[in-house]
Design a protein that fits this description.
With about 150 residues, the protein is mainly alpha-helical. It is built from 4 helices and no strands. It is globular.
């Protein structure tokens, strides 16, 4: 595996760590109607993290550990700011897995990256919809807008 592919996977692993941390944070601010979706998102990121760490080890790399904490783009103190944090972390995850797609020729890794990008894009759409953001979905998940 190329060093560029490994570096991209390490970056994606970092977004998985950040997503898990963020899902834990927002669970304190979102109501019961969002509890299942929060648990589902957390479980999906945990499984992706574990798979990604295993891939790195299988390819001779040491997975980067999680940071002690992460800084959301804005303070999280209520339901709306929690939803914004979830959208942001899912967008970051999309961008990181898109980076893996762009930096790998390995078909199995590319399929895993596409699956991860797609799942994160679906979760981001769910959180945008819950927040009342329009449009709820974006054209090219993982691509910086601006």
């Amino acid at each position: 595996m190329s060093p560029e592919s490994v570096a991209a996977v390490q970056t994606a692993l970092g977004t998985e760590h950040a997503a898990l941390w963020t899902y834990g944070l927002v669970s304190a601010f979102l109501g019961a109607q969002q509890a299942n979706a929060v648990a589902e998102g957390s479980n999906a990121h945990r499984a992706r993290r574990d798979t990604t760490e295993r891939w790195l080890r299988d390819n001779g790399a040491t997975p980067q550990p999680p940071a002690p904490a992460y800084l959301p783009p804005q303070p999280v103190s209520d339901g709306p700011s929690s939803l914004a944090a979830l959208v942001a972390v899912e967008n970051d995850t999309c961008a990181a897995w898109r980076g893996v797609l762009e930096r790998s020729d390995d078909q199995n890794l590319r399929k895993a990256a596409l699956d991860a990008l797609t799942a994160a894009a679906v979760r981001a759409t769910r959180w945008r919809k819950a927040a009342g953001t329009t449009p709820a979905s974006i054209t090219f998940p993982g691509v910086a807008s601006g």
